[in-house]
Amino acid sequence: MKNDQDFPTLPDEALALDRRHLLRLWLTGSILLACPPGLAMAAGAAGASKAGGTLRIGADADPIGLDPTIVTAFSSNDFTALLYSGLLRWNAKMEVEPDLALSYDMPDEKTYVFKLRQGVKFHNGKDFTAEDVKYTFDRILDPATASRLRTQYASIDSVTIVDPFTVRFALKNRDAAFLSYLASNPDGAIVPKEVEELVTKPVGTGPFVFESYQPNQQFTLARNPHYFEDGLPNLEKVVFKFYKDQATLSSALRSKTIDMTWLKDPKVAALMARASKDFISAPGQTSRTFPVWLNMKAPPLNDVRVRRALSLATDRQACLQTVLGGSGKVGAMIPESQVGGYDGVGEMPYYKPDPAAAKALLAEAGFPDGIDLGDYIVVAANPLDVACAQILQQQWQAAGIKVKIVPMETAPLLNQWSSGTWATLLSVALSWTPDSDAILQYLNSQSKFGKAMGITDEGLDRMMTEARAETDNTKRAAKNLAIQKHIADQAYVLQVYQYPLRWEIWWNYVEGYVPLAANIRSFVRNTSLKG
Amino acid sequence: MSDAAIFSLAGAEPAPRRRLRPTAGRLLLGLGLVMLTILVLITLLAPLVAPFDPSATSPQSLEGSSSQHWLGTDAIGRDVLSRIIVGGRTTLFITFTAVSLALLAGLVLGLLSGYVGGWVDEVIMRILDVIFAFPVFLLAIAVVAALGPTVPNLILTIAIVYTPAMSRVVRGPVLSVKKWDHVEAARSIGMSEWRIVTRHVLPMVVSPIVVATSLTLAQTIFTVTALSFLGLGPPPPDPNWGGMLADARQFMELAPLTVVGPAAAIVFATLTFIVLANGLREVLDVGSER
Amino acid sequence: MKRVILVRSMWMAAILLGVSFVSFMLMRALPGDFVLAAAGAQMLQPEVLEAMRRDLGLNQPLIEQYLSWLGAVLKGDFGTSFVTHQPVLHELWPRFLVTLELALIAAFIALVMGVSTGLVSARLRGAADWIVRLYNGFILAVPNFVVGTLIVLLVGLYFPELAVLSYTPFLEDPLGNIAGMILPAFALALAISVTISENTRAAVLEVSNQDFVMVARAKGLLPRTILWNYLMRNALTPIITVTGLQVATLLGGSIVIETIFAIPGMGQYLFDSITSRDYPVIQAIVLVAAACVVFINTLADIAYATADARVEA
């Protein structure tokens, strides 16, 4: 097993792992979910296709920088995911599996020792060793780098090189999120030691090599001939073509100018998938929630009765039906693709629509004639959000709650949200994050957003800390569910629905592709084109 | 640019056509007035004419034409026809108000600049050049982002955008009228400047201004709907034509009527003012080509 | 004449300075900056945001930022895009060419349509004149984004496999590139063709009334010879001027058509840059677009001034 060219492909190799660690690795992932139908279809047909060819993917946003340690924009993830690899990665069932690591050992609850793959080369020809792993994490943790990842990896105490292919991570405390972050891209991506300007000249160990980039037009990646998985990737090239406009994007897919894409509006995607049977459409797991954030620093929303009234006045199922055409689920804080994610049907306090009860609560809070909550700020550029806001406005009106919808440009909206200066209600959708803890942190009294919203709930903070420390997934899921129930009971936020962030759709000559809830297209490495 | 030059250039036309002009012109003007009446009536009576509440949503989305919903329903189940009717209100209100403001500003600046002349003219025209050279959408986005996407802000933006053009329309004729003999004569007998302007200059420039205003109305409808199309229009749930068109684009193959309806409304409104402008131009005998 | 041009050029520079200053201050005065726009809904620590601002020089006083920007621009350096980390000019140039190509193709279509309808209307008079003028009036009433949307709709309904919405880089496939430009250029050309048509008509009518044409006619020259030798040559100045003005406006104003047809030109670039608050790019586009408008305006003014001088003399 010295020569990387002889490495078997992953499933077999995974079997070679030490049984105990293997088990642990599998379990560390999120809860098991059935494959969506499209996924099964895609995986089943993989045999007959040949290597080579160019896959053209329609993308809706340009990357903003390609250095995984310092990128902050979601739009960069699509590219870093194909350029870089991490120690671990997500498999098709959203479970953690080994990638650059071969296995890991836990001598104690707070120490992880990773055995690394040998013979892996970076795109610049240099060998991948433990030095690069240490460099990557030291760089993240160095305050001078100002990496957004520093807080996510705050539990890391030290990274030590045991030998050129063994690394030890010592943590300050038990941390269930640690492995999730390592498996996510770009969060866990390993960068080569002391290579400058990764922002524009990315160098990773991923299946594809950066070739060229014409902003707003296309981003081209070429096959990495030295990629460590035998025979992969199949494709010679991957070309991302940029279409800012959703109508243009779907039209480009129909005319086969692109082979695959993802659509933002589930209704459009569902209708499109029905238009031709040669489309494979994979809604994927729900990974995005649509919340209404409340400013609880001042009256009237500092009164839990007003917040509960708002929740009771909301018919989440109706929003779901009208805005998403039913392609989604009722939402809570954590989307279903995460540990302890809400399934959309379970009991949640104040979720059953009841305008009369809402009115009664308002009267009790001192607003017998209804209440005017003023501006409800939404992202102007997101038609789904604006549509849902209009439906909410009508539903609330029926319970005597008046709001005025204010669509706003993204930058000023984020400015108000993060600084806590918005009036009463504001909506920004939450996208997939590597670990459920990152989502809960929005409501932590100590976090930037928690402070901006005016939450002071030490009990809730403690529940979150305990959940993150729980490395047993079943127990953690139960804790996360309890947290969500508490949030719904206090109505700290009004979660409306959850839906797939990426409703991916592609022509059936694209084979072997599997969509992931993880906001990336890492399975392009297994993809091939038929005929 | 020199509108005066364009005026003089386009103004001279062969004599035989003059006889034909008034009849055809009156015909056009009449048609324009009828169209305007229809537009204004529908707009004023919108809540009575609209068959449904334009904001009422329902799960019956993207349905085609039916006896109930003549133009079908939009992506969140609202009646398209009602939204077009009520949407005309917002669009036309913004258009009229913005053009009135621009006209007012244009009259003041154009008269000042054309009549007083000299350095006042230079300074005013150069400042207007700066505004004129400024991309419309940058200005619109800036105003909306800074002050919010409200109707008054939209009116303000569009008024600013059209002020340079209106000023030029006023300034051109004023420049030539100023040199006319009876103005010179009035000045020589010691008439006050104010009286000269109101008695002798203004009446002379009314015709081109009227024509230019109706053309500007047509152009403003274009700008208002284009801004709404780009998401810079008045906020929901109030419908507006440009926003409806933009929203419908995503689903246009599935529900073509949701695109065709607002498109037809925009064309009708614009056409009204163009017909009106052409009719006025013929009747008032203005050779302007804006 | 030289003096006029000199004074005009100085005014042009002053106007551009004014435009750049106003747009600089306007964009910075807007709530939300690049750092926030890039971060999106993610939870970023204040120190991460501060570090990004420091790296981009956004923490300096505004007037200092403007002056250093201006100083660099005078030396030909437009800075680096915050989003793509590439030199702004390097990014802007291909987009400028795309928009220029679109505008030129549109101008060509508009010229062909406008001059022919204008000639028909001026030469044939009577019914033909009225039909052309009614047609022009109607065309003027259809905004270009409505035409564009309807084109995309019809193609989507009846020719779903036709790739109207894909931009092909010129160097990759010149024919495909031009083919992709024709529909959007057509949408833009319609309204311009009306202006050209009306100006052609007016110019031809005016010129045909002037002495030298009368003389030519009296000398018994063929109508066709008169049309091409005298009429068109003399009517050409206003037609070209009008077309030039329209192209100048297109350079800064084809944003909606570019969005509808997914053409990576300057309009779309400006819109995206404003959304992401990519200040150096916004500044450069505004400057280029304003320069086009001001330059062609000035040319038109000078052309008219020369013509007027000739007429008066």
UniProtKB/TrEMBL annotation, chain A:
Signal peptide stretch: none
All residue ranges annotated as the Solute-binding protein family domain in the record: 95-449
Record's keyword terms, sorted: Signal, Transport
UniProt keyword Transport present: yes
Compartments reported by the entry: Periplasm
Annotated InterPro entries: Peptide/Ni-bd, SBP_5, SBP_5_dom, TAT_signal
One Pfam match: SBP_bac_5
SUPFAM superfamilies reported for this sequence: Periplasmic binding protein-like II (SSF53850)
PROSITE patterns noted in UniProt: PROKAR_LIPOPROTEIN (PS51257), TAT (PS51318)
Principal localisation: periplasm
Family to which the UniProt record says this protein belongs: Belongs to the bacterial solute-binding protein 5 family.
Protein name, UniProt field: ABC transporter substrate-binding protein
Originating species: Microvirga puerhi
UniProtKB/TrEMBL annotation, chain B:
Residue span, ABC transmembrane type-1 domain: 88-277
Keyword Ribonucleoprotein: no
Compartments in which it is found: Cell membrane
Membrane spanning residue stretches: 27-50, 92-115, 127-147, 153-170, 201-234, 254-280
rRNA processing keyword on record: no
Keywords: Cell membrane, Membrane, Transmembrane, Transmembrane helix, Transport
PROSITE patterns per record: ABC_TM1
Alphabetical list of Gene3D superfamilies matching this protein: MetI-like (1.10.3720.10)
Membrane topology reported for the UniProt record: Multi-pass membrane protein
Superkingdom to which the source organism belongs: Bacteria
SUPFAM superfamilies listed in its UniProt record: MetI-like (SSF161098)
Family: Belongs to the binding-protein-dependent transport system permease family.
Protein name: ABC transporter permease
Automatic annotation (TrEMBL), chain C:
Entry annotated with the keyword Iron: no
Superkingdom to which the source organism belongs: Bacteria
Localization (cell): Cell membrane
Domain ABC transmembrane type-1: 96-300
Membrane topology: Multi-pass membrane protein
Main location: membrane
Presence of keyword Transport: yes
Membrane-crossing segments per the record: 102-122, 134-158, 178-196, 239-261, 281-300
Key words of the record: Cell membrane, Membrane, Transmembrane, Transmembrane helix, Transport
Family: Belongs to the binding-protein-dependent transport system permease family.
Protein name: ABC transporter permease
